Amino acid sequence: MSRSARPSTREEILAAASRLFAAAGFKGTSLQDIAGAVGCSKAALLYHFDGKDAILAELLAPAVEAFRALDARLAALDDEAVRPAAVEGYVDLVLRFRREVTVLYGDIPELLQRPAFAGVHELTERLREALTGRSRTPQACAAALLVLGGVPVACMEQPDVDAGELREVLVRSAARALDVPGS
Amino acid sequence: MSRSARPSTREEILAAASRLFAAAGFKGTSLQDIAGAVGCSKAALLYHFDGKDAILAELLAPAVEAFRALDARLAALDDEAVRPAAVEGYVDLVLRFRREVTVLYGDIPELLQRPAFAGVHELTERLREALTGRSRTPQACAAALLVLGGVPVACMEQPDVDAGELREVLVRSAARALDVPGS
DNA sequence: CCGAAACCTGTCCGATCGGTCAGACCCTGA
DNA sequence: TCAGGGTCTGACCGATCGGACAGGTTTCGG
Fold first, then answer.
1. Mutation site, B113, B157, B161, B168, interface A, largest A CB count within 10 A
2. Average pLDDT, stretch A89-108?
3. Which SUPFAM superfamilies does this entry report, sorted A to Z (chains A, B) (predicted)?
């Protein structure tokens, strides 16, 4: 009786939910969608899990725990050593839990497909090329995406900071990340 | 076109929708919520706009148009001049349309409040401090948020790139953005 | 003063959501 | 053989969603 020989329904549910949450977001995925992907009834999901939130919680538990472990590791370092360790640790964390992180942003793609955002995708694509100086090296692409995704977050999270000051520091940081000459 | 003597119902709807969309996301805001904030009936919204999507479209139209203008401006530049212009143009664009950009990420905060993400907010806060070396200068904070928001996007948008390679280039770009010594 | 257009409301609709429930179908150990 | 726990289903529920519709009220030009 090896418990992990065949994929149990429970594991199939988690796998399907992970895929669907990452593709269409948490809100954008209904229990019916998951049940359809697994090939069982919606009631079967709710037999194995105490609701939709419980599925999400179990799916993200390893990622959250790893985040907590990183936090504990960084807390033991002094102010000098903490910065490079935080950078490497964060990048590693995100890369290790790519799928889980994608769940967080999963609702955005569907939003971008609405008529209000018609053409924005192509604009973003060209902006990404402009940020790399129309180069295609992995280094340039990754840096461009870092700026593309980071600037809005930096602006959103600091709504009270003066726009002029924010502009100056963000342009400088972004240019450094991109290795733009003269920065 | 209506003359803007006092705020018309139509303008009140747009203002309330902008506020609510940014706070709770597009999906997270119902027509009933908007109507309640404005102080009118749900049917009144649908008299002034052809559905929920139309409200979003009108709300974001100026931002999309500005994005398009930036795209046209960048297209006329050569590969050398385009990079610094793209950086400044993008930062300016996002800062000018902070509210509109926030709508895109609006669904995330509510998601983060679910039990699955219990404690993650505090972890993120401490990680931000670690990335700045526990400093509080605006430059360091903005750079940390740029990295915090940019790394997941860079990982998500390049799912096929080898993790090891992505790790190396992201660590380097992030460290440069943060101005970490020895990068 | 009147009729039409603009504005707004209450009410209703079909669809879909997350979730509940009684019962049926196994498989297994006594 | 039968009892019982684990598994799963179909039917159903209340709530909420975006939206449609008929009709009432206000405003305004002729």
1. B157
2. 96
3. Homeodomain-like
Report how far apart, in Å, the C-alpha atoms of A64 and of each of B120, B121, B147 are: 7, 11, 19
pTM, entire model = 0.92
Residues 6 or more apart whose Cβ sits within 8 Å of residue B171: A87, A88, A91
| CB pair distance less than 8 Å for B138 and A161 | yes
Supply the DSSP string of A62-94, one letter for each residue.
HHHHHHHHHHHHHHTS-HHHHHHHHHHHHHHHH
Residue A95: its chain B contacts at CB < 8 A?
155, 163, 166-167, 170
- pLDDT for residue A2 is more than 60: no
* pLDDT 10s digits, A14-72: 999 999 999 999 999 999 999 999 999 999 999 999 999 999 999 999 999 999 999 99
Q: Cα(A183)–Cα(B18) distance, rounded to whole angstroms?
A: 36
What are the C-alpha distances in Å from A107 to residues A10, B103, B117?
24, 12, 16
- Domain locations in chain A as residue ranges: 8-102, 119-178
| Cβ neighbours of A64 in B, within 8 Å | 116-120
Token readout for B132 is 């700045």
Residues 6+ apart with CB under 8 A from B102: A156, B22
Question: CA-CA distance, A164 to A159, in Å (whole number)?
Answer: 12
Under 8 Å between Cβ of B106 and B26: yes
C-alpha pair distances (Å), A12 with each of A27, A59, A94, A96: 20, 12, 24, 21
Nucleotide nearest to B9 (CA to C1'): C7
Question: How would CATH label the architecture of A8-102?
Answer: Orthogonal Bundle (1.10)
Rounded to 5 degrees, φ, ψ at B140 are -70, -40
